[in-house]
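Fold this complex.
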Amino acid sequence: MSTQIIELINASILQPEEKEKLSSLLEKTGDDDAFYELFNELLIKEAEKKINSINSTLTEYNQQVEVLESAYNAQDEELNTVLEKQLESIDPSDIKAQHQALDDYNTQSIKLQSKHKMNMESIVGKLMIQST
Amino acid sequence: MIWDKIKKVAKESGEKLIGRGAEVKFRKEVQEHMSRFGTSKEDAEKEILDDQFGFIDSDITADGTIDGDKKEWRALEAGVNETLSKTAKEKCLEDSGNTSIFRSFRTPRRGDKRKLTKFLSKKHKDAYPDRDLSLRKNDALITGMANQAAYMQQLMDRLRRELTPHMGTGASLESILTANPQIGADLGQLQKMKGVMDKSDSILLRKMGFDRSMENLKDDFHKAVTEDLLKGTKRFLGLTIGGVGKMFRGDFSGFAKYMTEGTGILMKGFGRVGSLGAKTLKTCSLYLNSKRK
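Structure:
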């Protein structure tokens, strides 16, 4: 019985010092109501703490990603507008001009994407380190 | 005679191996056409080419594009390869860039962007679950592709119309194009335009791939951030479900109470961070409630 409860304590999300505290209480007073009350309290507190930390990481991440994505989307949209206007103005029989417009668009788009990718990876990396 | 047949089969098998299966198929179709309708080789070739233009035309009408994965375009290419000499093909390409031979359209046909978007969305359904957003973001490319396809259709219409009087005359396509370089210029232009379409398509694919990789990055981040809590909680809950009956010997209302309170809070949090944890906790909560009764 006691072994099972200790196993339960150890598998929980509690911090090592809290686990220690619970294990000593169990050893001293056994699994009475006071023990379960404390276990309950610590468990809820730790879960809230963890969830809050995850949520704040996610909030920070979402905010930063939103800023990056809206900047990226605006620039991508700009490139699309340029391409649209170019293709619109080129005579369809002018194959060379069409290739040129597409090549220019592709080069700019690759540049923009690699910058965006680098920014996204840097946010992810930073927050991952922060969350561990 | 038999030796000739063996040599022919060996040649065709070799051609198939080097990716010229479509050329072999075209030659067979020409032979079949000749024996079925008693026409000359030249007329059979023109008839089959005309059919192939027709198939591509139907594809564009149905999907708003000539899909690179479809065999219709390759079949047309093979037909042209088998019917025209290398010099004649080069002349077609050259004439298509010569403004005194190639006739531009005063009003180029506009493509059906909606049809093309629908086709692309269906085509990329499995590889790109978030394709619709990508497609919306690449409106310029899609409009371009739709217009390119419509322009090709317009070129084919003119080409087929101008070839019609030469059908059944016994004249070879090459001799017709030599006498009428403007028709050959349309053929050359058609081929070049396919190159433009293929380029647009590959840029679109690359952009969709990028969008997908960014979505994956976001998913991975969410997973990594929540995994730690999920891992610990799942193990804890597993043990609870297994051990709770034994621990309380039938009376576990106190423990169940705190578990349900705790899981309530946990679930609220998990609802925000991921469905997997919420499901695990819900299972535990339901289990405990059922035991309480």
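The two ends of chain B are 92 Å apart (CA to CA).
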